[in-house]
Design a protein that fits this description.
The chain is an all-alpha fold and 658 residues long. It has 23 helices and 2 strands.
Length: 658
């Protein structure tokens, strides 16, 4: 069953200092770490294996179904890219005057159309593979983590974290390798035409983020529909499947998209800078060097941007139950769910302040050093730790799955307490990962916005111009529209799930007592069908908005839309992720009862605990569907606008030409 030969390596952990002490209550029972519990019970091993197999089959089935729909979109959009970009010069095969260096001749627009289409398909395929591999690794690790928890929380932690690290390093290296190979293959045709080369490479980022959008939204709807259903009527297998397709596969595709886009943004900006003019290939590939150094962990701290660290620390402070903000939210449950919701929302809004200042300062300093190229490299600095970021992100869902397996396998209460302790730490690490993704998305989007403005030949973006201002105010509205669609989708799918689980409890004899086996397949099918159906409208909103605005209103209005969506999207994303994370850990703080204060609020089933469960249920779609998807919205709209910029500049603004 081992995923890695050395997953079982022992580590020495003091009895009073678990490896995640900063993310859990400091008062942890010694038996969580030291005692061995039920390690000779072979029946438990068999049951865990059965549950793990069902989770793996459900996750694989969902992803294959999702990829069939997404594959159709991928081919259709690739054709659209070719037709739009090819028509810029009337599908001419003649060399054209370069956009930024009028004295040179560049490759024809038809070549850019062909290579952009190829790079789009390449990015989309790599994103899909990244998500799928991450899911397979996680489904192999979850049951093993459960079984290791019988020997103590330390060994379970090591298993979960190392499994996450396998995924992190695999995806980071995979994304970098494919991008580097693509650049060198394209260079055989483009030669010294850096402008055309990296304009075509931008399609790689577009492909990666397009797949990430559907992975995040579809997977997020799936996992949260099942999770909300589980909170309301008890644990269902679809909840565990959802952790893998949403939090693992979706998150893997998401961070791969950020990785690809930030690299492409830096490369595009570099191609129109002095590096591109002087044909300095070494300087041009500096963005890839940053990414590759980040794969060696001992260099992460040297390369990573300080803003990323601040966002991480602030996120931990506001979402970990070791600190006062989450404890205050838990305490508010004394007077019911309403005060819990009020305190949680206030926490989320407050948690936005310091990250926004950190992003703002990093933008100013980076721009002062190297203009838009500096901002793009700053985004890469934040994402250079992507391998470790993915590791701590994947650790959370693996631990959550381990707890679900322990509960469904009927393992002892003590083992469930150990997996709960891991899960509480995982909530915070996942929130930190989301904070990094959102912060880097802001910087990446700004760099892509700068490249779009240059490529579309916009001299200045003047907000006093009506064309720009209407775009600005509409763009600021888009994250709210998108969030409303995704949250309602989760609610609709959860409603169907709750009805099905209640039907099974009422119609299957012995199910309530644990003597009969539930109908897992129907629950999985409900989540699958609902998520596939519900992911299309939000995806269409994001993908079609730049095309509609660019074609009918022109590049100036589109620049306003991009700026508006960036400014409002970042705030909502941080707030939603931290609010949901705080509500989740407030519930776990009460359940664990590890401090005197927590014990006055518990135990499970008490009125404060019921209020905490309501907050946690409300927070599920915020932290795992709407919040994480918003950073894809702002990145994807920016990179899509950049890819289609030549077409918009040539043929856009039809309504204003009438």
């Amino acid at each position: 069953m081992a995923l890695l030969p050395d997953l079982g390596t022992e580590i020495v952990i003091p009895g009073n200092a678990p490896p995640f002490a900063t993310s859990c209550s400091p008062l942890v029972h010694d038996y969580l770490i030291e005692e061995e519990d039920g390690i000779n019970d072979h029946g438990v091993v068999v049951k865990c294996a059965e549950i793990q197999s069902a989770i793996s089959e459900g996750a694989t089935s969902f992803l294959f179904t999702e990829y069939q729909y997404v594959g159709i979109f991928m081919i259709a959009f690739a054709i659209l890219i070719f037709l739009f970009l090819g028509s810029v010069e009337g599908f001419s095969t003649k060399s054209q005057q370069c956009t930024f260096n009028k004295e040179k001749l560049c490759k024809p627009a038809l070549a850019t159309a062909i290579f952009s289409t190829v790079s789009f398909l390449l990015g989309a395929f790599t994103s899909v593979v990244s998500g799928f591999l991450g899911m397979k690794i996680a489904t192999y690790a979850n049951a093993r983590t459960t079984l290791e928890a019988r020997k103590g929380v330390g060994k379970a932690f090591i298993t979960a974290f190392r499994s996450g690290a396998v995924m992190g390093f695999l995806l980071a290296a995979n994304g970098l390798l494919v991008l580097y190979i693509a650049i060198n293959l394209f260079k055989l045709y483009y030669g010294d035409d850096w402008e055309g080369l990296f304009e075509a490479i931008t399609g790689y980022g577009l492909g990666g983020s397009s797949m990430a959008l559907f992975g995040r939204v579809g997977g997020g709807i799936y996992t949260k529909a099942a999770d909300v259903g589980a909170d309301l009527v008890g644990k269902v297998i679809a909840d565990n499947v959802g952790d893998n397709v949403g939090d693992i596969a979706g998150m893997g595709s998401d961070l791969f998209g950020s990785y690809a886009e930030s690299s492409c943004a830096a490369l595009v900006v570099a191609s129109i800078s002095s590096f591109g003019m002087t044909h300095d290939f070494t300087a041009m590939c500096y963005p890839l060097l940053i990414s590759s150094m980040g794969i060696l962990l001992f260099l992460c701290v040297c390369v990573g941007l300080w803003a990323g660290l601040i966002i991480g620390f602030v996120t931990e402070y506001y979402t970990s139950n070791a600190y006062s903000p989450v404890q205050d939210v838990a305490d508010s449950c004394r007077t019911g769910a309403a005060t819990n919701v009020i305190f949680g929302l206030a926490l989320g809004y407050k948690s936005v302040i310091i990250p926004i200042f950190a992003i703002a300062i990093s933008i100013f300093v980076s721009f002062s050093f190297a203009a838009m190229y500096g901002i793009a490299v700053a985004a890469l600095g934040m994402l250079s730790t992507i391998a470790t970021g993915l590791a701590i992100d994947a650790y959370g869902p693996i631990s959550d799955n381990a707890g679900g397996i322990a509960e469904m396998a009927g393992m002892s209460h003590r083992i469930r307490e150990r997996t709960d302790a891991l899960d509480a730490a995982g909530n915070t690490t996942a929130a930190i990962g989301k904070g990094f993704a959102i912060g880097s998305a802001a910087l990446v989007s700004l760099a892509l916005f700068g490249a779009f403005v240059s490529r579309a030949s916009i001299s200045t973006v003047d907000v006093l111009t009506p064309k720009v201002f209407i775009g600005l105010i509409v763009g600021a509205m888009l994250p709210y529209w998108f969030s409303a669609m995704t949250m309602k989708s989760v609610g609709s799918a959860a409603l169907k799930m709750v009805e099905e689980v209640r039907r099974q409890f009422n119609t299957i004899p012995g199910l309530m007592e644990g003597h009969a086996k539930p109908d897992y397949a129907t629950c999985v099918k409900i989540s699958t069908d609902a998520s596939i159906k519900e992911m299309i409208p939000p995806g269409a909103l994001v993908m079609l908005t730049p095309l509609i605005v660019g074609i009918f209103f022109g590049v100036e209005t589109l620049s306003g839309v991009l700026a508006g969506s960036l400014v409002s999207g970042v705030q909502i994303a941080i707030s939603a992720s931290n609010t949901g994370g705080a509500w989740d850990n407030a519930k776990k703080y009460i359940e664990a009862g590890a401090s005197e204060h927590a014990r006055t609020l518990g135990p499970k089933g008490s009125e404060p605990h019921k209020a905490a469960v309501i907050g946690d249920t409300i927070g599920d779609p915020l932290k795992d569907t709407s919040g994480p998807s918003l950073n894809i919205l702002i990145k994807l709209m920016a990179v899509e606008s950049l890819v289609f910029a030549p077409f918009f500049a040539t043929h856009g603004g039809l309504l204003f030409k009438l």
